[in-house]
Amino acid sequence: MLKPKFILLSSTLLIASLAMSACGSIAKLVPTQLATPAAPSAPTVRPTRQPAQPPPTANSGVTTSLSAYQSALEGIYTQVNPSVVSIRVVEKQSAATSNQPDQNSPFSNIPGLPNIFGGPNQNNNQPPVQQFSQALGSGFVWSQDGYIVTNNHVVGAADKIEITFADGTTLPATLVGTDPDSDLAVVKVDNPGFTLTPITVSDSSTVKVGQVAVAIGNPFGLENTMTVGIVSALGRTLPAGQANSTDGSTYTIPDIIQTDASINPGNSGGPLVNDQGALIGVNTAIDSSSNSNSGVGFAIPSAIVSRVVPQLIQTGKYEHPYLGISGISVTPDIAKAMNLDATQRGALIEQILPGGPSDQAGLHGSDRQVTIDGQDALVGGDVITAMDGTPVKTIDDVIAYLGDHTNVGQKVTLTILRDGKQQSVDVTLQARPAATPAPQTANNNAVPNAFLGIAGQPLTPEINKQMNLPDNQTGVLVEQVQAGSPADKAGLQGSFKPVLINGQRVLVGGDVITAIDGKPLSTFDDLLAYMQTAKPGQQVALTILRDGKQQTLTATLTAHP
User: Fold this and answer.
1) For residue 445, is it within any domain?
2) 281 and 376 share one domain
3) Among all residues, which ones are annotated catalytic?
4) What percent of the chain clears pLDDT 90, i.e. is strictly above it?
5) Helix 58-80 crosses helix 6-23 at what angle (to 10 degrees)?
6) In whole angstroms, how large is the CA radius of gyration of the chain?
7) CATH number at residue 198
8) Neighbour-count burial of 240, counting CB atoms closer than 10 A to its CB (0-12 exposed, 13-18 middle, 19+ buried)
9) Which position has the higher pLDDT, 92 or 11?
10) Mapping DSSP to helix (H, G, I), strand (E, B) and coil, where does residue 334 land?
11) H/E/C letters for each residue in 197-226?
């Protein structure tokens, strides 16, 4: 168990001392009185003048506390730094990605420091030249046989990986395993020629808000940098998984540690340690509008790291327990809409994924749409109030319980409310399905001049059937709408209903763009081709089908970000 030792105590003493010097009484310096001379008949004895001894002051306590604090930080750095590595990766770029960053990435604010070296070929008459991107990150030694832990988003797509140790030694590394759904990865260096120093791992479940948090890594390429803060919050969640999948499912990483220790681009994959120099998390993301530290950083807890990393080393992958639902936390408004007590809490099941564990167990998704604060919401599904007797108050509680206490193939007992009545349902967990690539991507040679801000795919007879459209209906189904984009401002709606098509999960139900400025669209490339000729600031008329009814929306295009 992590105990607040002298670092926290020193901080407390430091605060107390400062408060004392600022608010307490100030000791007055009183001159030392000389001894009175003796009578004239007696021998004259001159008194010895003793130097005045300054009284103790509050500042002496400050100095002692500050010295202890500094010594503690020095000790942490000395202990942990040999375990920390800097990571450089090189990735080949396609013609499309050479020209633009990945706008769909769920890790757009993650400190992975993507730097593109070499721009696109400006001479369209010349054959394309292979482009490369370089990125910097951090990691730490897991074991003496060369295994190193970092973030999946740092090394997952790398064609070349180099590891630089604290003493400056640089060695090539190979990718051992990745898990996009926890954003963790393991790489390995062979025969380093010196003894590696594995990091000490602590139990993140004992971490408390207010405890010291220390980050060591490679921010902005500045190797072996240490920053200090506190654990500022617990129980956060982060988006996980690959952005370019068509199964419609999105996952989150539970139990994320929030810290105000400075985390910047390049810190990704590096350790967050406690006052004993033991790992409590892997630095992963920041919440910032400037892509640099704003005092809100996030780390994957060591409890997840300890579960995932051994499996990555052994098999190269990690199977996450999977319930097969999407849901939201019950709020007073949702409770009211479902005729439940206003104080009722739990996780409302919005959707049941076809063929999944919850579907097989007979759980019910929501089937009624209501408007809450001007937003459409689905209600009426089962409300999970406990898992194996552990209370569930939010959807994050469900995610955390699955990640912390369950395994694939395990049976869990869900306590639910259905139509206001409590009952229990047993569900046998399955392995979370792997992400699948998009069925159609943008033309690799086409980089639109103007930007609409959607992800989509062409209609197929199977999709038409799921959406109750004519078999021969053509158009582009809007899968996702980027927040703040022209499409978002115009009111386009993305897909929300997961269905199985040819064994793959696909999101349907969104708007279908059938024409732009009167020009019919059949494929996503048709839309991209139009964007090639359009200009930022241009208004376009989008003919769409929404719930089978045709309407027209107007969008003002912007420059491609």
Assistant:
1) no
2) no
3) 153, 183, 268
4) 54
5) 150
6) 30
7) 2.40.10.120
8) buried
9) 92
10) helix
11) CCCCECCHHHCCCCCEEEEEECHHHCCCEE
